[in-house]
């Protein structure tokens, strides 16, 4: 009998196409050697071309799932994704505040295809309730604009964007600059330290699930004992490989390959 691996909980929505959301989170956690667990916040009808529908779960169902897992099994890290409504954001923030594990907040606002995944009314709760309990927040540039009103169009603008997000209270922020031209560059900072994470940009349009994957990899590495900068670098390496190996699926944007290391090892 083996000892239990570190346990990581994802609190997020379901992607029926399997490329993002809960499905991507659990695949990432398995690939990185931790035990993934889930609290489902919403069900989406989703595929490679977009989101055809989304249905948030009742607050009572989300709270019951969370307590069921945390009270019995325990967690070494938590990752949040799609929370859909202000009521769910507030509920999850309250649950996280009493858990005592590192929290990675992926402030999911829109899907890869531009479909809204967070109600406009929930933005204030995200700023004032969820971000203050985050160990690391991982917004992309669209989410930075939603949260702060700042439009980032160059690498030089990543620093003021990070400063603006830090004002909401997360200990660290990782601004994902993947939408900028040139190399894929992200900025990790706590307001004192800065870590610039760079990777070559791969010519591959199949990038569905990158944000979920990066945040889950970061949470997995925190559960394994990494400090935040080391966890972020390891997560960046993992998601870069997954993007390079992304594959076509359906008629639109295919997913990143969460099993790329396994496939490379068996080639």
From TrEMBL:
InterPro entries: HMP/HMP-P_kinase_dom (IPR004399), PM/HMP-P_kinase-1 (IPR013749), Ribokinase-like (IPR029056). Gene3D superfamilies: 3.40.1190.20. Keywords: ATP-binding, Kinase, Nucleotide-binding, Thiamine biosynthesis, Transferase. Its EC number is 2.7.1.49, 2.7.4.7. Residues 15-257 form the Pyridoxamine kinase/Phosphomethylpyrimidine kinase domain. GO terms for molecular function: ATP binding; hydroxymethylpyrimidine kinase activity; phosphomethylpyrimidine kinase activity. Pathway: Cofactor biosynthesis; thiamine diphosphate biosynthesis; 4-amino-2-methyl-5-diphosphomethylpyrimidine from 5-amino-1-(5-phospho-D-ribosyl)imidazole: step 3/3. GO terms for cellular component: cytosol. It catalyses: 4-amino-2-methyl-5-(phosphooxymethyl)pyrimidine + ATP = 4-amino-2-methyl-5-(diphosphooxymethyl)pyrimidine + ADP; 4-amino-5-hydroxymethyl-2-methylpyrimidine + ATP = 4-amino-2-methyl-5-(phosphooxymethyl)pyrimidine + ADP + H(+). It is an enzyme of class 2 (transferase). One of its GO terms (biological process) is thiamine biosynthetic process. Catalyzes the phosphorylation of hydroxymethylpyrimidine phosphate (HMP-P) to HMP-PP, and of HMP to HMP-P. This is Bifunctional hydroxymethylpyrimidine kinase/phosphomethylpyrimidine kinase.
